[in-house]
Write a structure and sequence with these properties.
The longest helix has 20 residues. Helix content is 23%, strand content 17%. It folds into 2 domains: 72 residues, FAD/NAD(P)-binding domain, CATH 3.50.50; 63 residues, FAD/NAD(P)-binding domain (3-Layer(bba) Sandwich). The strands form 2 sheets. A 3-stranded antiparallel beta sheet has the order 3-4-5, with no helix packed on it. The protein is an alpha+beta fold and 154 residues long.
Length: 154
Amino acid sequence: MEDALYLTKFAEQVIIIHRRDEFRASKIMSERALAHDKIRVEWNKLVTEVLGDETITALRLEDTVSSEVSELEVGGMFVAIGHTPNTGFLNGVVELKENGYVQTPTAWRTETSVPGIFAAGDVMDDYFRQAVTAAGTGCMAALEAERWLAHGEG
């Protein structure tokens, strides 16, 4: 919701394509988005194809209820799929923060509470939550793992 609201500063219209018939985001953020005059929601839809030759011109959508396929003309696309990290499988394996993100000693380290397990990207970054920082922490984790292995700890 935050991303959609932010994009209204630059776009004539922001269309949220949502695979369900309700949001799981916080109630206040959902209400703000739904009340905004520049935001429209396409409920129960999935993007199945991005259309256009050199630039994006449309999206092919599939209705999650009826399986009906439609096309939506657009001038751009911004992908944001929520901020809940998929770390459930790590519960009881490494230390997690209250919000579900993997706990690391500092923002610039990727080691976890278990020696030899390193965290990167969307499972540990609960502040910036950007692709570029995910890539950066991926590089950091690889370097830390390499050093850990080089020192005979692995």
